[in-house]
């Protein structure tokens, strides 16, 4: 048997360090067993998936040195490697399940589902929705079908009490409660499969032997195991890695830690240092040394050395490790070359010069005008925002709303950013100049910078969003109660979805 592992990210946002973490362990396991490592793009969410996000994933993983043997850009005998290009494949498997009575068409409306869930909650019923809860009478089913109403296809799951035994490489046999397993949607009303169906079908057709993924997928394992049984296929070996966590032990999230790989690249972290740090997340070298290369990890890799304790992603520790790589692995000439590659290259200079040229009288004016572009976290305090016309609490709300809107942007362009911020200013009945003042300070550290929209384009989405997020914290942060109030107001003036 040839070992085949895969990473299957969704191109719906910034490339996440968690994706790189899972990719690293899949790559190491495949290489250790002379197998193949596959990259598959799971773009079943057609409303949120973008080509730009997919390219960012490919570029980020390659920057880290995580190369794949098969994928959408390199091809392979099991392609295509984008789920959107495999849409016709899934239909036959849905039809098979429907014919066997192992799936059913569900015509329930969104309103009906909300009412059903509310009634169950009121009655103190906490089990998942089962087929018997969702099926309509035969007469009503035929009536909705005749009207051409939209439907989804759901899988049949056990309704009786009991547990599902799921085997895991690291955790042994896990007994998971069937009462918590819902009648999962397999095919959406737009004809696209959900992750659960596409994941199982693609892993089978691509010959994936080991599924190494995050522990957040443990609760989905019974559904996947059931689908393998329904189709009569052998299930891959499962291995659920521990989740990356914030220093406060909560699940790693962008609200408490930068999570985008592009952020760390733009900040000036070395690819080899970030990869080294991810390798330390729940795993250790036999000699316990903290600094090691990808080749070192490949030589010593043994997945049984993974610890199930939630590894802490601590940016301060990452900075320390990055410093070791800078000092121990670069002489002066090599460091100069890395600095040039990172920021001080002709392409970046040519992008910046048009914005500062008219403000320059001497060459020495250049560095102060653009220093914020080469900085990481800006030295801001409440006093930085005090001279602005708006009170500090309103400025904090402006920054939080601007952050949410920037997180929702699909195209990171000057005009798009301007329109998004202008619509917020209008919605809040704040003059654009006053609205932009705290954004200027958050992004550039000063209101004397060139256009904040141009500055955000040059900084890129990851660094711009990180600075807005940091500025909110400088102004006292937004706790749960404040966020709830902000979210309600934001939803009322914005058509954009709230950010979770």
From TrEMBL:
Recorded superkingdom: Bacteria
Catalysed conversion reaction: tRNA(Glu) + L-glutamate + ATP = L-glutamyl-tRNA(Glu) + AMP + diphosphate
GO cellular component terms given for this protein: cytosol
Listed GO biological process terms: glutamyl-tRNA aminoacylation
Enzyme class: ligase
Any single Pfam family the record assigns to this protein: tRNA-synt_1c
All copies of domain Aminoacyl-tRNA synthetase class I anticodon-binding, residue ranges: 334-471
Positions that bind ATP: 254
GO terms for MF: ATP binding; glutamate-tRNA ligase activity; tRNA binding; zinc ion binding
Function summary: Catalyzes the attachment of glutamate to tRNA(Glu) in a two-step reaction: glutamate is first activated by ATP to form Glu-AMP and then transferred to the acceptor end of tRNA(Glu).
Official protein name in the record: Glutamate--tRNA ligase
Organism the protein comes from: Teredinibacter turnerae (strain ATCC 39867 / T7901)
């Amino acid at each position: 048997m040839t070992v085949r592992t895969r990473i299957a990210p969704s191109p719906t946002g910034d490339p996440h360090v968690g994706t790189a973490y899972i990719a690293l362990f899949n790559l190491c396991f495949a290489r250790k067993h002379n197998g193949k490592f596959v990259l598959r793009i799971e773009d079943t969410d057609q409303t949120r998936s973008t080509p730009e996000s997919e390219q960012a994933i490919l570029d980020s993983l390659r920057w880290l040195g995580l190369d794949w043997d098969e994928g959408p850009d390199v091809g392979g005998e099991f392609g295509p490697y984008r789920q959107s290009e495999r849409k016709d494949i899934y239909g036959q498997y849905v039809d098979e399940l429907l014919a066997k009575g192992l799936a059913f068409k569900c015509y329930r409306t969104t309103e009906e589902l909300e009412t059903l869930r509310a009634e169950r909650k009121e009655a103190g019923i906490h089990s998942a929705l089962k087929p018997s809860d969702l099926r309509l009478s035969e007469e009503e089913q035929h009536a909705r079908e005749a009207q051409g109403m939209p439907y989804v296809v759901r899988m049949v799951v056990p309704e009786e009490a009991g547990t599902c035994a799921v085997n895991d490489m690291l955790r042994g046999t896990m007994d998971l409660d069937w009462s918590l397993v819902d009648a999962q949607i397999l095919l959406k009303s737009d004809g696209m499969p959900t992750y659960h169906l596409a994941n199982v079908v693609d892993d089978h057709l691509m010959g994936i032997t080991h599924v190494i993924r995050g522990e957040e997928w443990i609760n989905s394992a019974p559904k996947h195991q059931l689908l393998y049984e329904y189709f009569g296929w052998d299930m891959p070996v499962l291995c659920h890695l521990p989740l990356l966590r914030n220093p406060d032990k909560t699940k790693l999230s962008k609200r408490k830690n930068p999570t985008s790989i592009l952020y760390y690249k733009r900040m000036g972290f070395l690819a080899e240092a970030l990869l080294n740090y991810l390798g330390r997340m729940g795993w250790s070298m036999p000699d316990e040394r903290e600094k090691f290369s990808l080749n070192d990890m490949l030589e010593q890799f043994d997945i049984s050395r993974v610890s199930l304790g939630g590894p802490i992603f601590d940016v301060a520790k990452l900075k320390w490790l990055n410093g070791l790589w800078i000092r121990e692995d670069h002489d002066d000439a090599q460091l100069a070359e890395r600095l040039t590659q990172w920021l001080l290259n002709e392409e970046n200079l040519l992008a910046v010069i048009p914005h500062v040229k008219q403000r320059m009288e001497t060459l020495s004016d250049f560095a102060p005008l653009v220093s914020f572009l080469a900085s990481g976290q800006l030295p801001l305090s409440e006093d930085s925002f005090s001279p602005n016309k708006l009170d500090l609490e309103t400025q904090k709300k402006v920054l939080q709303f601007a952050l949410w809107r920037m997180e929702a942007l699909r195209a990171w362009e000057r005009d798009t950013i301007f329109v998004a911020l202008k619509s917020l200013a209008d919605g809040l009945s704040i003059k654009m100049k006053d609205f932009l003042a705290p954004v200027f300070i958050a992004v550039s550290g000063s209101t004397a910078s060139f256009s904040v929209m141009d500055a955000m384009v040059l900084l890129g989405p990851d660094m711009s969003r990180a600075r807005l997020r940091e500025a909110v914290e400088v102004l006292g942060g937004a706790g749960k109660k404040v966020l709830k109030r902000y979210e309600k107001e934001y939803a009322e003036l914005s058509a954009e979805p709230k950010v979770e």
